[in-house]
Structures are given as structure tokens and as C-alpha cells.
Amino acid sequence: MSKRRSVAGSVATVAAIALALGGVIVGGGLGAAASATDVGVLAASAGCGKNPTLTSGTRNIQSGGRTRTFTLRLPDGYDRNRQYRLIFGFHWLNGSAADVVNGNYYGLLPLSNNSAIFVAPHGLNAGWANSGGQDVTFTDDMIQLIENDLCVDTSQRFSLGFSYGGGMSYALACARANVFRAVAVYAGGVISGCSGGNDPIGYLHAHGISDNVLSIAGGRSMRDRFVRNNGCTPQNAPEPSPGSGRYITTTYTGCTADHPVVWHAFDGGHTPTPGSWLPQATWQFFAQFQGATPGPTTPGPTTPGPTTPGPTTAPPGSGACRVTANVNAWNTGLTEDITVTNTGTATINGWSLTFTLPGGQNITNGWNASYSPSSGQVTARNVSYNGTIAPNASVSIGFLATHTGNTAKPTSFSLNGASCTVT
Questions:
Q1: Up-side HSE of residue 205: CA atoms within 13 Å toward CB?
Q2: Which of 38, 271, 385, 417 has the most Cβ atoms closer than 10 angstroms to its Cβ?
């Protein structure tokens, strides 16, 4: 069944579900068991170091007295000692786990570079009614099974989905904010319930201004719940005009540390594929969160904190740093990945990297650094977990930006005031 056909044929059903499920009660054991522990201080799962019995493919599991099904995708060259992200992709109404798999988990699989374990659950009656919280419990049970056997960074759990799958991801944001690091909701509605819904969590939402299945007005309300929960500064986010073919991204400011809110409003209807920019933006949103450092039994940093103030050691001398920058551009957006290497003999404790963006480029989101201002001459400063760069060691940072046609990368970079070699 194609995505377009299954969505178009489900408009009336989704509308009925939206009216009927306003009072869903969500339960389940994992969230209650983990509620005393913040996501950021969790580390390696019980499966780290074990010879795995789980492999890629479709599996059955008993949950709530029922046999439930999901498809698992392990990274190529799975390493039992590396802590991987865990990403759930929930299908739309009358879709299936196979549809999510065939769509490369909403386009994130090729972007992950084998850094994540992907899960595509299959819903009862090809949907996510979540009656009595059964689908949240199903998610709890999948997490327990997977993490008991595979090596997962338990501070790096994510969920995304379109339409009904977006509603399910929203239900997890409400009920399991202490379990998941962030969610991405594509054209979702409050159709799988929202038990709790008072805790902060990283939240991305993309919605078409002409969506006639689950309206953008409902999407705004869903977004605003987490604007409040995350302590962000409220604003009237701009949206594109009908027929413009554009999308507008709003990154909310003032949010509590590690709880960003990003809103993508696009000129279009009820679709998970408004453009190639959305998988890119979603992956970069998830990838900005840092957890355990991959490697044998080495626990990583806890929840990223606020930006560390300026350098605490003398700047390196000229030629004591090397920068590699790579740009991936599309339509009116781009991502830039930057690797900074300390080529000197002294450890750098606290750093700032200065560069000038080409005209028309404007940073809307970033990871592994704070960026100010968003255009022109920009300074990227370390965050709490990556301020130290040992000799011959590197740190990777990056950002998402809009552009007006010029997608070039900066021509020069300075680390703590000294020029770097650019390769």
C-alpha cells in the first residue's frame, strides 16, 4: 500500500478518531520505573558487552496479553561495546512497519551513518489508538527487550512519525518525557492521547498550512504545550503563504537547557514529505543531543548543560589548529559539519571558533556548540561537555542554516583568536 493512497483513504477515519480519543488514559511500566532518574544521567544499557541474540528483521513480542510486532534494524558492523541511539519510527493510519522500513525510517537511516538502532513498530488495526495506554506499554516493552540484548545509550532515545504516527510520538512526549530525549511530529494530532504532558522534552513539529486531515491549528496547540513545558519564550511563529512553495523554520529561544523546540511550517497539505529538507532537519535535531561516548564500556557525558564561558587557557599559536568543513545544501537550506583538530602540543581548555558566513546564510539550529550571532561573523563556543581538546584530538560541531543561493562554506576559521589551517 502506498503512503499517498493509505493517507488519502483515511481522512474520515482520522477525523473520527480525533473526536473519539480525547480522554485516553496512558499507562505502562517503564516510565514509572524510570521516573526518579533524569534521561541525561542514564548511560549504557544492560545489553552493552553482550553477544546479541537480536538481529535485523521482524519480531514478535508479548505486550498487554497480545502478540505485537515490530521490525528492528541494527547498524552495519554492529559493535556490542558501542552505545547507539535508539530511534522509533511510527507509521501512519493504514500504514505498516514495512512502509516505514521501505521509507528508510522517514529518511533518517542513510543520514545516521550507522550510529543508531532503528525500530518500526506495527500498530493494532494499522493505527495507534493507544486504548488504555496499550501502545505506550508496547513501547516500554520493546525498549526493555532491545536494551537487555543490545548496546544502547539510554539517554539517546528518540521517536518520530507522521499523522497517526506523529500522534503516537506526541503521546510518548507527554507520557515518557523522562524516557525519550526528543520527538519529531509530522502533521500529527492529539489522537493517541496525552497522559501527563507536563514535563520538558526536545520537540520538533512539522505541519502543512493547508492540511485538511489534521489541521495546523491543532499542530500549533501541540507545539505550544512544549513551548510552555520547556520554558521557551512564546512567539507568533511565521508561516509561509499558500502557493509560495516555501517552508519557514522557527527555533524558539529561552528554552531550558537540552529542551529545544523547533517548528517547521510549510506550504502544503497532509504529507510527511514536503521536501528533502525535512529528514535533514530532523536528523540534525536529534544529532545535536550528546550522550555516551561510543566505545568499550566508557560512560559518556551526562545531559549537556549551559554554554561554558570563554577560554581558560592561552590561545594556541598560529598553525596549532586545523579545520575541515563540509556543506550539504538543498533548496533554501543547508547543513555544515565542522571538525576542529588541535594540532598543537598543549591541551585546549575552553574554546571559541570564529568564522564568517557567506552573505544570505542564516543559522537556525546548531549542535555541539552555541552560535552567536546567526549570520555574518559568527562565534561558535564550546558547551559543557566538549570544552577540552587534547593535542591531536578533534571536536565535531555543526549547524543548520537557510540560504538565498550562496551555499559556500567559510573561507577561514580562527580558534581562540589564532588562524587555523583549512582543509
A1: 32
A2: 271
**d(Cα 179, Cα 128) in Å, to the nearest integer?**
19
pLDDT in tens, 317-331: 335 899 999 887 777
Give, as one character, the DSSP assignment of residue 307: P
Q: With bands split at pLDDT 50, 70 and 90, how would you rate the model's confidence at 369?
A: confident
Distance set, CA 137 to CA 128, 180, 185 (Å): 12, 14, 20
Task: Identify the residue with better confidence: 332 or 349.
Answer: 349
CB 160 within 8 A of CB 109: no
Beta pairing partners, 86: 117, 157
Q: How far apart are CA 203 and CA 262, in angstroms?
A: 6
Q: Which residues pair with 362 in a beta bridge?
A: 402
pLDDT, residue 87, reads 98
The more confident residue out of 160 and 391 is: 160
* Residue in the structure block whose three cell numbers are 530511534: 87
Average pLDDT over residues 287-307: 42
Tell me, what's the pLDDT at 319? 53
Q: What is the pLDDT of residue 355?
A: 96
Specify the length of the chain in residues: 423
3-state secondary structure of 13: helix
Nearest alpha carbon to residue 119 among 183, 83, 182, 72: 72
Q: How far apart are CA 7 and CA 266, in angstroms?
A: 18
Our measurement of the distance from residue 10's CA atom to the centroid of its chain's CA atoms, rounded to an integer in Å, reads: 27
Q: What is the DSSP string of 104-134?
A: HHHHTHHHHTT-EEEEEE--GGGS---GGGH
Would you call the peptide bond into 373 cis, given omega within 30 degrees of 0 as the criterion?
yes
Q: Which residues of 28-56 are buried (b: 16+ CB within 10 A; e: fewer)?
A: bebbeebeeeebbebbbbebbeeeeebee
User: Which three cell numbers mark 209?
Assistant: 498550512
- The separation between the first and the last C-alpha atoms of the chain, rounded to the nearest angstrom, is 47
pLDDT in tens, 47-106: 999 999 999 999 999 999 999 999 999 999 999 999 999 999 999 999 999 999 999 999
Strand order in the sheet with 333-342: 362-367, 394-402, 333-342, 321-330, 421-422
